[in-house]
Amino acid sequence: MSSERQNKDDDSRASEGSSSSSASQDTETLPIATNLGCISSEKEEEMKRAAVKKRIERYFYQLLEGCGNSGCGNRFCASSGKVPALTPDQAAARALQLFAEEAKLCAAVHPSKVARTEDSTLSSSDGSMAERRKDEASRSQSTSHVTPSQTAPRGDTQHTTETHLDEDIIQALVETSLEKNSPLPLIRSLGAIFSSTDAVAASFRARAVTPIDLLLRKATQKDLRNLTKEDLRSLEGDLDKDEDSSCAGKETPPETHETDVDVLSLRRSVKQLFGIDDPDANKPKNTFPVFELVNNALQTLATSLKIDLEITTQREAVEDIIRTFVIVFEVICIAPAEFLEGALTRMCSAAANLPTWAQGRLAWIWARHCTPILRPLLESLQQIITLQVIPTMIPVQDNETIVNATKVMKILYYADILAGDVDPGQLREDDATSTVSGTAGVGADEDLEATARWSFDEVKFTGAARADPLAQELGVQPVDARRPFLPLSEFYNESLSDTIEMDYDYLNYKNLHMDEKNMNKKFCFMLYSFILTPATKTLALYYDSRIRMYSERRINLFTTHLSGQTPNPYLKLKVRREHLIDDALIELEMITMENPKDLKKQLVVEFMGEQGIDEGGVSKEFFQLIVEQIFNPDYGMFINQEDTNTMWFNSTSFENEAQFTLIGIVLGLAIYNNIILAVNFPKVVYRKLLGIRGSFPDLEDWNPKLYRSLKAMLEDEDSDMETVYMQTFEINYQDVFGNVLRHELKGNGREIAVTQDNKREFVDLYSDYLLNGAIERQFGAFRKGFRMVTDESPLALLFRPEEVELLVCGSKEFDFEELQAATDYDAGYTADTPVIKNFWEIVHALPVENQRQLLEFTTGSDRVPVGGLSRLKMVISRNGPDSDRLPTSHTCFNVLLLPEYNTKEKLKRLLLKAISYCKGFGML
Fold first, then answer.
1. Which band of pLDDT confidence, cut at 50, 70 and 90, is reported for residue 45?
2. Would you name the residues annotated as active-site residues?
């Protein structure tokens, strides 16, 4: 800029400084006032806030730097010589006061001194601002470094590109290209920047936080026009204490969840660049196609990033790469379909090499600043995997594209958890200390010798080879997710789950488990279980339990052969139907006292006095009968909650801890032997089984009425809470006999009233007592028994609490159409045989209760397996010609033996008779 033009500008500013304050206010507020009628109320508020902030900033710089007019008569302007020396913090507080008083404001300002506001749309409405952007873009082009690959085509004397991008530069480039009707300015700049790590990392930097920003954050809840002097002094004092203010201008390590990328500006700029309509923007849209150009440039960038991550160890360099990934994934997710098979796939290949701490940083940034891209990014990753699964001829574990997309999805998975509601870490119990001390497997009168035989005083899950490093880095576990940003079920990939060979994947898992140094590292989807459907994970658990059963069988045969003892390769239970509970619990107690390892053997049940070899069907019947009896409220160990029709632990039960331990063993044995139980626990039980204490949100499922009552208390802001609720920290409840019991939630609780100040504490203590404290003895013993069977299985690695419930209770999708499609036929029957057609017509017309009876008659259980009835391979076999014999079944093999009845009426009559009177006989 020439000195002559500078003098003219100074003279102009001087003349503007002599104008009145009201005039300056009118010129500033008029554009806003005239535009408010054509925008939404939300946008109106945003623009008002931006205008307020801009005005306070003008006071701020006026106090510190002045207006530039040496003859200024404004006593609130540093150019007048009447303003004492102020620190930035003092100037910020004083600027806020001047705004509240509507003090005189000089019209002249120095654009280079006034920080950009976050509302770019306001700035862009000023024509001079747009011209300044173009000038800046032109100056940047004329001074940037020229590389051979960036030179202009023949005929151009010289052409250079930008060194970075921001909202102003992109708008200037778009406007220039549109004016010249040529895409060359865009193409040259975008191609150079999006293929350079340094250029992308330097782009879209958020401006530094100023004292004005900090002060306005602290004053957001107050009316800025009505601030008192005491308020201003308080705000100024808070500002002095703020670490950000004291560290202004210094380089400090980034917070884990913070980023210096201006994500909002980036998002607006990319929409403008790609010509995508943005209702919040009033800018010219680019009409030139740039998707292919950016896609190619990002693929080149991904190759560079992958190489950098393989050789880079410096944290600062990796921080630049993280910043690059934040920008690139935002760009890709604006129009994900355009980048699906190009840039996104390559970027996944690069991002898969991020170190664990960098994955954690990226997860936090996505969770805190990039939630709009979580769903489109997830959908794109799922599409990449699905497209690769369909034509693959090799195991999916060896497909690098699938593996890399899954690794990036893991970062996204934890970002999704962090972006939602997460239980605090203190609710997570330590496995080693969460069990009940003492001997849960023996009575209180047993001697020390019997106590010594109990080797599970500290039972914990050891099935996972090691803790997930990313979960440790983030300090969060999947089990902590209370309400994620996206439903975690959206991370399932059914195509992958149906294609994957779980035996091969389980082998990789076992090799990783045994190879602590990962010398022969193979990718294992069991360590990325969020992508697998519950049915596929159940198959992995089945492989684990079967292999363990075979191992225990071999060990037993080998040791008994050497010692000359009688082999005992199975966990065999001999019970009487009339004394089922007593016989089963006594035998299990003896086994746990003598050799708890026998619980890992394959279960074989024999009903005394009945014929039949247990190939699975007898065990199903055993578990069904024992559950019906032991969870009966008349038995006294569990109570039925009428509002939710769920079973809960009886806190006043007369049964000792050993009995609850053995019930836990029964539940663990059912999972271990792949048997579904007809139990109906609230979801909090499964969370507690995985080591998470119950808390207030769990009451919504446990006792909805109580939950709503306590929630109303928390939301009640009236000051007369003590007189309305008349509640103290002492609670009353009834036992199973109707006796009223009292409990103080804290010391001297009966004398402490619940008020607005302590109501949250009351709710938390109340919830903790109901869900944890009142049943600590019973549930601790129950969980110990459960973990005695499942401690070495990958249960906790594979399943979340809601999936454990599905594993125990089965699916709720009772669809016989699925069963018909999955049924096979034998001994001459086909799907077109008349009796088979009649059979399915009858079955589909039956009430649900009769359908459950048929399922129980054929398979030994009326529960639907995980994944639905399509997972149940039933066989209908011809059992001779027409006769008066009833249908029979082999429940061990899910085989229905059906004579070829001549009429549909006869088939229905005999079938209903068979399924209605089947218990206790005819089940082999």
1. low
2. 892
